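$ ./design --mode recover --in tokens.txt
reading tokens...
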């Protein structure tokens, strides 16, 4: 049996937007500086174009991806392995937006299979720890020529003006389908669950520490990259279906996300049991203990992050705490 593994912070350095203070506050310790706004948890994914950066390491120094590849059944379970092999189907992050993120989008699987020969697109969802403003999808149909002009001229005011603006609060969640333009506002702090790829297409880069003209299109050129954009006008009620207000348990994320990943917030006051299966745990408040079916109990505290293998079995969680439990899709439901 492999026991749950406590993971230290894993923060790619020198990102093009600011943040990191809220990750340090949650964890108690993390990378210094103001351009470490992401903590990649239980990551088997590298930054786009990088051979190593982004991969999580276990306390014994091994890369998690190597451990999973060596014994996928123990980590992921036989049903998962029968469908997807050693692919975890999951990447979890802490993201601290020290400034508003640029308007951007992530491509869907058919696009990346055709143009990038990648296994996954990048759907994502945000569980909100600290709230604020987000922009999500266009309010009206946008012509491709219009989008091209906005991007070439960096007309950020026009882009944001055409998008839905939402206020989100702690305990809310937002599902972002592939292709949907979006931006996370300054001060928003999230647990992000996503498909395990680092694939972003920038619509905006003015004022950010990145050369968007050179780096904003995944090496494809904007003529091709922007084919991935969802240019449809989304009605307000359609956007509302992506947002869950104060969701708990199975209702933490919008149902539309289930084919990509699962995540649920659990508020424990006393005890509860987590079903067996590969998962990534993020303790967002409080303290307690975690006890696998066949191993001694270990402490849990605010800021802890853990990778839980299938062979750990069901887990008893006791105490007064809140955690987010992130999992890959069910083999019967996954994309």
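writing sequence...
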């Amino acid at each position: 049996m492999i026991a749950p593994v406590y993971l230290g912070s894993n923060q790619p350095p020198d990102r093009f937007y600011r943040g990191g203070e809220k990750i340090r506050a949650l964890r108690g310790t993390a990378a210094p500086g103001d351009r470490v706004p992401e903590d990649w948890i239980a990551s088997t994914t590298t930054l786009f174009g990088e051979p190593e950066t982004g991969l999580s390491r276990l306390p014994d120094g091994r890369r998690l991806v190597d451990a999973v590849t060596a014994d996928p059944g123990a980590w992921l379970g036989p049903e998962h392995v029968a469908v997807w092999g050693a692919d975890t189907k999951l990447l979890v992050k802490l993201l601290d937006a020290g400034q508003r993120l640029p308007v951007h989008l992530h491509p869907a699987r058919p696009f990346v299979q055709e143009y990038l020969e990648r296994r996954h697109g990048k759907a994502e969802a945000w569980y909100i720890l600290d709230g604020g403003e987000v922009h999500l999808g266009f309010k009206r149909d946008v012509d491709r020529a219009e989008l091209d002009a906005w991007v070439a001229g960096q007309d950020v005011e026009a882009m944001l003006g055409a998008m839905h603006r939402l206020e989100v609060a702690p305990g809310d969640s937002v599902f972002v389908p592939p292709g949907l333009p979006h931006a996370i506002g300054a001060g928003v702090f999230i647990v992000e669950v996503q498909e395990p790829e680092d694939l972003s297409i920038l619509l905006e880069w003015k004022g950010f520490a990145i050369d968007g003209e050179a780096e904003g299109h995944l090496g494809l050129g904007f003529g091709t990259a922007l084919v991935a954009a969802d240019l449809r006008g989304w009605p307000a009620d359609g956007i509302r279906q992506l947002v869950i207000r104060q969701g708990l348990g199975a209702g933490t994320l919008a149902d539309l996300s289930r084919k990509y990943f699962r995540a649920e917030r659990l508020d424990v006051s006393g005890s509860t049991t987590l079903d067996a299966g590969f998962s990534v745990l993020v303790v967002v408040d409080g303290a307690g203990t975690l006890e696998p079916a066949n191993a001694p109990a270990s402490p849990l505290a605010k800021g802890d992050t853990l990778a839980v293998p299938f062979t750990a079995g069901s887990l008893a969680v006791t105490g007064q705490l809140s955690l987010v439990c992130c999992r890959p899709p069910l083999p019967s439901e996954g994309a």
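exit 0
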